[in-house]
Amino acid sequence: MKIFEKRYINDKLVDKYHKLERKMTKIKEQTELLTGAEIFLECLKKEGVKEIFGYPGGVILTIYEALYNCKDIKHYLVRHEQAAIHAAEGYARATGKPGVALVTSGPGATNAITGIANAYYDGYPIIVFTGQVGLDQIGNDAFQEADIVGITRSCCKHNYLVNDVSQLPRIIKEAFHIATTGKPGPVVIDLPKDILSQKTKFEYPQKVNLPGYNPTYQGHHRQIIKALELLCDAERPMIISGGGVVAAEASKELTELAEKLNIPVANTLMGMGTYPASREKSLGMLGMHGNYWANHAVSNCDVLFAIGTRFNDRITGCLKRFAKDAQVIHVDIDPCSISKNVHVDVPIVGDAKNVLTAMLHEFDNNKYDTNREVKQAWFEQIDEWKKKRALPACNSEKLNPLTVIEKIYEYTKDKDTIICTEVGQHQMWTAQLYKFEEPRRFITSGGLGTMGFGFPAAMGASIGKPEKIVINIAGDGSIQMNIQELATCVAYNIPVIVGIINNGYLGMVRQWQEKLFNKHYSETKISGPDFVKVAQAYGAVGIRVTKEDEIVPALQHAIECKRPVFIDFVVEEFEMVYPWVLAGNPINKVLLSNDSPIN
Questions:
Q1: What share of the chain is helix, strand, coil (3-state, %, to 5)?
Q2: β-strand pairing of 417-421 with 497-502
Q3: 3-class SS of residue 439
Q4: CA separation for the pair 106, 543 (Å, rounded)
Q5: Are the C-beta atoms of residues 402 and 433 closer than 8 Å to each other?
Q6: What does DSSP assign to residue 449?
Q7: Is the distance from CB of 311 to CB of 334 less than 8 angstroms?
Q8: Helices and strands, number each (H, E), in the chain
Q9: Residues with a known catalytic role
Q10: So what's the pLDDT on residue 596?
Q11: Most CB atoms within 10 A, among 241, 252, 256, 425?
Q12: Lowest mean pLDDT among 268-272, 276-280, 289-293, 395-399
């Protein structure tokens, strides 16, 4: 009997122990489960994200609740959702790492569209997270519902609507992979409210499995040999370097190949700095407002080697007459870009860095004659074209905007500087006058031409590269598009310097009206606030400059004070951007002054 009682007691204790164990296991499993909002942050940590730009709203409050105690990710509260996307892109452009933005549903998401489209056309990697109404409300015209997947389909590289919290880690992993591989670009992830609250076990995938997505990184060897033979045999070769060289970090290889093969280099707006501007073979920017000699060299070359460019209409002008006597070699990681606008004789699909490395290896290991003596006549011809230069349109006592940008260049060229711009005359003057020696030092909107881009992009660049001086050259029209971000800069002490080229007009549009519409300045004269007082009202530094001898002291003070600064450069109203190729003309039909005839 005693033995039985002892055994009964032991069995009871064992059962009790097992029940307790099961209960503890269940509690442990429940504590191991994470909400979608918590998974969102854990995924960002796995991808090495340290900074994000965002603006809260009702459907994403669970994310902001999770962010409250998150010490690994710094959130920057912008003052408008468009600015969050531009800041993420500026961060990506300056650092080479993907930028991340977070906005709420409805108007928050639709405010982000311009920034998404800008990153798409210029090819920079950002991941944009948008809030969405609950899954059961989608399609019911719920409060602040917008079909963000449908809206962004044409202006992003890929997009997702998350409909299962367990799939969120896979989707975020894929998004970072897609944004940063192949031709970089924005990826949008739409996050329904209920997905962010649901719980699941967090497991971050180690690999990405996308069978239909396999970018080609290595160029075809025979095509590389053919390209080298053409370039070496050419009498009048030219290289066009575009934004793809920046994305591929291929500036060193491009420079080495141009030197070895003795070929001049012109840059697109997106390719500025990929070949050092101070070198003899640099022809600077080509295109609508490109250098006269660069445009003529491209128009008269016999072999054109284009790397990482889409052949945008701003660099080609009239397609029928673009490099019409040249055999064209085109390197691009996006096969859809090849022969899309310009017929290509030697297509090479691949990563610019890999293709240029392969070309250098082939050149170094085989006997290629670079035809240097024959090419000498080509360089002499280019030197003749260089004698033709654009003339200022105005000769008045007022401060000339070209002088302002030249002084900015002279004062900052030996400093560790990133230059951003808005869109307009000041953008083209900066591209023409500022000599960039390396990539990722010039941040501007190209394909979409977005006014209001430069200031928040400069903010993102400064956050990504805090050791550098960041200057945004703006127009008095463009700066008012996102002027509210001065509050963001002050709040986080982001020392962006904004140089406002204040001419009282929407300058580039006015320029077209002057030349083509009989000086009918219809709605292009723009009034602005007192920018100095605006800066001071926000808690930043405001400086006004009206004379040439005030430019350098203003820049010196702006750099040394290490605070957000507005410099209001009050300049001549009617200065023009020359050289200028009118739309529809070949790029060698260049206007150099106000006296240039329009045929």
A1: 45, 15, 40
A2: unpaired
A3: coil
A4: 39
A5: yes
A6: -
A7: no
A8: 23, 20
A9: 81, 143-144, 193, 508
A10: 79
A11: 241
A12: 395-399
**Which tokens belong to 236?**
């009048």
CA–CA gap between residue 428 and residue 439 (Å, rounded): 17
Question: Does residue 10 register a pLDDT over 80?
Answer: no
Q: What is the mean pLDDT of the chain?
A: 94
Q: Has residue 300 got a pLDDT over 90?
A: yes
Task: Identify whether the C-beta of residue 564 lies closer than 8 Å to the C-beta of residue 540.
Answer: yes
Question: What one-letter code names the amino acid at 33?
Answer: L
For residue 26, name the pLDDT band (cuts at 50, 70, 90).
very low
Bond before 56 cis per omega within 30 degrees:
no
- Closest to 227 in 3D by CA, of 334, 347, 333: 347
Give the integer Cα–Cα distance in Å for 111 and 454.
17
Q: What are the residues whose beta carbons fall under 8 Å from the beta carbon of 17, sequence distance 6 or more? A: none
How many whole angstroms separate alpha carbon 575 and alpha carbon 561?
31
Q: Find the helix or strand (DSSP H, E) in which 389 lies.
A: none
Quick: pLDDT tens for 132-189.
999 999 999 999 999 999 999 999 999 999 999 999 999 999 999 999 999 999 999 9
Residue 37 CA, chain-centre distance (Å), reads: 28
Task: State residue 6's pLDDT score.
Answer: 59
Contact predicate 418/465, CB 8 Å = yes
Contacts of 430 (CB under 8 A, 6+ apart): 405, 419, 421, 442, 444, 473
Helix axes 352-365, 251-261, angle to 10 degrees: 30
Question: How do residues 494-517 score in pLDDT, each as one tens digit?
Answer: 999 999 999 999 999 999 999 999
Residues 6+ apart with CB under 8 A from 511: 425, 576, 577
Q: Which pair of structure tokens corresponds to residue 6?
A: 């002892």
Q: What is the DSSP track for 73-103?
A: SEEEE-SSHHHHHHHHHHHHHHHSSPEEEEE
- Alpha carbon distance 101, 80 (integer Å): 12
DSSP E strands in 225-351: the ranges are 237-241, 265-267, 282-285, 303-307, 327-332, 346-349
Query: Tokens 């069978």 — which residue?
Result: 211
Residue owning tokens 């122990």: 17
Compute the distance between CA of residue 165 and CA of residue 521 in angstroms, rounded to an integer: 55
